[in-house]
Amino acid sequence: METFFEMMEKDEFRAWYGSKEVERAVDKGAVGTLLVSNSLFRSNNVAERRKYVRMVEEVKKSGGTSLVLSSIHESGIRLDGLGGIAAILTFPLHDLDESDVEEG
């Protein structure tokens, strides 16, 4: 988590958090390190759990690292405060926070 926050200060377009933004970064093959709270894997929604499993698998396939943080540990609590998911990218992406309407 410290590395993530350092990246946010140093190069904000290489540090993203939030489900939609991180999913877009994964789809673009830009994620070097994926941080996921274990609480997301305990969701009652099966489709949501599968989405996070897919993201972890995609990051690993592209040569990245996935870290699952415990939601009872300080770093996991901090991650949960960011929506439970964050990513450090291998290259900057500037448009991950734009809505689907803006992309179309």
How would you describe the overall organization of this protein?
The protein has a single domain, classed as 60s Ribosomal Protein L30, Chain: A, CATH 3.30.1330. Helix content is about 45%, strand content about 20%. It has 5 helices and 4 strands, in the order αβαβαβαβα. The protein has helices spanning about 1-10, 20-25, 45-60, 75-80, 100-104; strands at about 15, 30-35, 65-70, 85-90. Strands 1-4-2-3 form a 4-stranded mixed β-sheet, sandwiched between helices. The chain is globular and about 35 Å long. The mean pLDDT is about 90.
Question: What percentage of the residues does DSSP assign to strands (E)?
Answer: 15-25%
Distance between the termini: 33 Å
Query: CATH top level?
Result: Alpha Beta
What name goes with the CATH superfamily? Ribosomal protein L30/S12
The helix content is 40-55%
What order do the helices and strands follow? HEHEHEHEH
Tally of domains: 1
Sheet with the most strands, sense and barrel status? 4 strands, mixed
Mean pLDDT: 92
Strand order, main sheet: write it out.
1-4-2-3
Structural class by helix and strand composition: alpha+beta
| Oligomeric state as shown | single chain
Q: Helix segment count?
A: 5
Give the CATH architecture: 2-Layer Sandwich
Net shape: globular
